[in-house]
Amino acid sequence: MPAAASFRPIAPEAAGMPLYRVVKRALLRAIEGGELPPGEALPAEAALAGAFGVAIGTLRHAVDELVAEHILVRRQGRGTYVATHDADRFLFQFFHVERSDGLREVPQVELLGFARERLEDEAAAAALGIAVGEMVVRFENRLRLQGRPVVHDLITVPALLFKGLTEKRLRERPGTIYQLWQTEYGITVVRAQERVRAVAADRGVARVLGITPGTPVLQVRRSALTFGDKPVEHRVSTVHTAVHEYVQTLSRPA
Amino acid sequence: MPAAASFRPIAPEAAGMPLYRVVKRALLRAIEGGELPPGEALPAEAALAGAFGVAIGTLRHAVDELVAEHILVRRQGRGTYVATHDADRFLFQFFHVERSDGLREVPQVELLGFARERLEDEAAAAALGIAVGEMVVRFENRLRLQGRPVVHDLITVPALLFKGLTEKRLRERPGTIYQLWQTEYGITVVRAQERVRAVAADRGVARVLGITPGTPVLQVRRSALTFGDKPVEHRVSTVHTAVHEYVQTLSRPA
DNA sequence: GAGTGGTCTAGACCACACT
DNA sequence: GTGTGGTCTAGACCACTCC
């Protein structure tokens, strides 16, 4: 063994963990912590590998996994960037409603209601990991596709995480909601889980979607998660599936 | 340049294609062609790399992608195997119904009907890529979870691909349907696409599921695909979502 | 102990994007 | 042209499984 063996301080929880996962964690911490904000270019791979004291292949392995999770984006010849929430990402990663013929489109959003209140909904509390009675912001949207009302959203977020979220800000937002969460509140949604059931449209939803009460509609309950699988948003979407459908591919293509 | 440059014949369509993709294609052809049947162990990575005349890293890159697509399975210390359709794979890759509290379970299947007929359903014809009037096998299943009837399936497959498929064979099958397709008919389902809508239960489905006609239910239309995205099965599932739900995770975890 | 996949290294050269 | 990510090579050693 060489006398001056290289010394790399490793976090205690990293014992026995592959080196590329240690590097991945370090990158995640930097992104979470704001040292690498969304849209920022990472240092070149060779430079990063040098900074971490690992081979470039090891660095690439770590980056590969983050790219697969849509946390980083590689652009050949240009660099590697921290992913941002733009319209495309919304459409392909988080919006699963399309017309029966396969047409995909960014929906037009109308804000229908807004309230800052104490949470009473136990299911929402469980999904958000907070207690009943905590302050939340709740608001309702109507989404139109090709001009038709298709989706009603009831969105609940903890007031603590979204200080300063007002009706005005929601109304004036330029892009998608997750873009707003990211740019204004520093919260990046990295994945979501959805549970779908069929229900009869109640009066309120029927009015918003312009359908007869009792019409079968999809009810999609979504938990949106940020780093570390921390829940940051709970959403109940009601989808009118006469002309549109909820789609998914099981097992991604190459 | 050395006088005896190594010569590797490449398929014309592989011009400009990365070497690891050429290797991947070769592996896929071997699996499709039956030289590597489901369950078979691949030669060791070092041996395979040698056979292809590529570095082991390149071979691993090709295998990595096939593992990500669930076409190969790696088992450390043992070897790499061509994936088979067992109960676990069915449950996690293709069966998305679970109880509201998250309980996942392999359903009990009852065969309710079987017919060999000329296809009239235009939507099914389009999904299967065959013409109206072609011979198909259609059959119906009822799926129970915790003893309750929860799902009704109407499955359509081209008779040409499933020669010798009889009611008896379906009734006697030991495992999942995709296991039967694979072991008896040499057809491996590698992925599927699903489109979901809410409808009112018609009389037939209501009787099978033990619910009132008109109850809102999920209608899931699935196209199951084999290699090269060739459709091999069309399925319309009707799901009673009082106690169970259709789930999905958007963007996989690490 | 022998054989397998899993990790890590240290380089080289290619393809692409911007200027 | 310069700098970036993308591909490919050729090894070494580790961790796991089975005999």
Topology of this protein?
The structure is a homodimer of 254-residue chains.
Chain A: H1 19-33, H2 45-52, H3 56-68, E1 72-75, E2 79-82, H4 87-94, E3 97-99, E4 108-118, H5 122-128, E5 135-145, E6 148-158, H6 167-172, H7 177-185, E7 191-200, H8 203-209, E8 216-226, E9 230-239, E10 244-250
Helix pairs in contact in A: 1-3, 2-3
The structure holds a DNA duplex (19 and 19 nucleotides).
CATH class of the largest domain in chain A: Alpha Beta
And the CATH topology of the largest domain in chain A? Chorismate lyase
Looking at how many chains there are and whether they match, the oligomeric state comes to: homodimer
Q: Spell the H/E element sequence of chain A.
A: HHHEEHEEHEEHHEHEEE
Report mean pLDDT of chain A, rounded to a whole number: 91
| General form of chain A | globular
Class by SSE composition of chain A: alpha+beta
Poorly predicted residue ranges of chain A: 1-8
From the alpha carbons, calculate the radius of gyration of chain A and give it in angstroms: 21 Å
Q: Which range best describes the helical content of chain A: under 10%, 10-25%, 25-40%, 40-55%, 55-70% or over 70%? A: 25-40%
Provide a count of the helices of chain A.
8
- The termini of chain A sit apart by 44 Å
Strand content of chain A: 25-35%
The main β sheet of chain A shows up as: 6 strands, antiparallel
